[in-house]
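Sample entry (120 residues):
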Amino acid sequence: MSDIVTITEAAAFQIKDMMKENEEEHAYLRVGVKGGGCSGLSYGMGFEHDMSDEDEILNQHDLTILIKKEDAPILKGTKIDYKQSMMGGGFTIDNPNAIANCGCGSSFRTAQNTGTPEEC
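Predicted structure, serialized as tokens:
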């Protein structure tokens, strides 16, 4: 079975750097979905110290990634990368399940889950 989410080497490097800067080297990376944003759903990433029975657990590039089981179908096949450009850097999220995105790229909806759209 392929992983629900794939973290590229560039994204993993940036995440580990952020963990070090924030003294979170022993934390897990939480990747999730919540309602909101102009398209109905928004991505979330953060550091967490506790896992639960409700989590899918992935290991990539020496990172432990937690995803709530209820978010797994929405995120299945998602690729998280980090791109550097002249204007700075940022994470990019490519979700094959998204049927609509807003301009910022952090809000989306899927055919099965429209979320709760908000005004931009």
